[in-house]
Design brief:
Elements (H helix, E strand, L loop, with lengths): L1 E4 L7 H4 L4 E4 L15 H13 L3 E5 L9 H13 L4 E4 L2 H10 L5 E3 L8 H9 L2 E4 L7 H11 L2 E8 L2 E4 L19 E5 L2 E6 L2 E4 L2 E3 L4 H6 L4 E4 L6 H19 L8 H6 L6 E2 L19
Parallel strand pairs: 1-2, 2-3, 3-4, 4-5, 5-6, 6-7, 7-13, 12-14
Antiparallel strand pairs: 7-12, 8-11, 9-10, 10-11
Length: 294
């Protein structure tokens, strides 16, 4: 089970205790204060701290890099590789090709904006050296099952957190304040009970994706790599949600159902409720409990 942190200040043993691995850096905004992608000294220290804590360290590269940004991305990856990074996540096919060519043997992960919809696309990524993929969020579990079986690739499933829905290269928020202070404010797009969260260059779901009641099914389907999306959340959210999912995964691994109050405990951290995304072939805003529709 892994999560995400953007800055060195977030590398804290108490808040990261439930996780096995951490993706480092803010992939949505290069100007985010303290972004580990831009501060090489902090990046080295973050990797060192994670190693001390016994956790794997991965680097997140920009979700929508421009050509002029590629030299800086390459430099950050070179720093991370020299510091002992375990893998690098990329969302762009050209960047994946460049990293595979310039850093032979580097473990590569395809991120959530890599557009992995089909097994053919995933096989093309595999040809470039990608070993782990995050399928597009619009795919159902049955479609992801087929993709996994047809490619033999490791698959990351996001099981909790706000779903990244779209990204732009220009910040939405600069019309409402100065960078970087405006990025620390909460911006919500609302219409009746419809809610989205806006964070500069990325739009996310308002409700949190929540699969805590379906972990036993995910394990039975052969999935072992799970992400708790916490990039836009505070440290308490990262710690408490991670602990609840760790408890639930351990119970599911023993063949148990886990505590019945897990959704209620999670709900205290999710003011706009839950959804299951498109895992069950329904509207992305729907949430179903343990009785999965047939």
């Amino acid at each position: 089970m892994h999560t995400q942190v953007a800055t060195l200040e977030e590398i804290d043993s108490g808040y990261l205790e439930p996780y096995d691995a951490v993706y480092l850096g803010h992939p949505y905004c290069g100007r985010y204060p303290g972004n580990l992608l831009a501060d090489h000294g902090a990046l080295r220290e973050a990797i060192r701290r994670l190693r001390y804590l016994g956790k794997r360290a991965y680097l997140s590269t920009p979700a929508a890099p421009t050509s002029p940004e590629l030299p800086a991305v390459r430099e950050a990856v070179a720093v991370a590789v020299a510091a002992g990074i375990d893998a690098v996540e990329a969302h762009n096919l050209g960047l994946i090709h460049m990293l595979a060519r310039e850093f032979p043997g580097l473990e590569l992960h395809a991120g959530c904006f890599a557009g992995v919809y089909t097994h053919l696309g995933a096989l093309e990524l595999k040809r470039y050296g990608v070993t782990r993929i995050t399928p597009n969020f619009e795919l159902s579990l049955d479609e992801i099952d087929y993709l996994k079986e047809a490619t033999g690739l490791e698959v990351t499933l996001w099981v909790h957190g706000k779903i990244p829905l779209g990204i732009t290269r220009d910040c939405f928020l600069l019309a409402y304040g100065e960078c970087p202070a405006v990025c620390r404010e909460d911006f919500w797009l609302r219409h009746r009970d419809w809610v989205l969260k806006c964070m500069g260059t990325v739009v996310l779901s308002g409700p949190d994706l929540c699969m805590v009641e379906h972990l036993a099914d995910l394990l039975a389907r052969g999935y072992r790599t799970f992400c708790i999306g916490t990039l836009t959340e505070g440290p308490a959210y990262r710690r408490e949600v991670g602990r609840i999912y760790r408890e639930a995964l351990e119970a599911a691994g023993r063949g148990g159902a886990g505590a019945r109050d897990l959704p209620e405990r999670l709900a205290t951290h999710s003011p706009h409720g839950f959804c299951n995304g498109y895992f069950f072939g329904r509207s992305g805003r729907d949430y179903v409990g343990a009785a999965v529709p047939g």
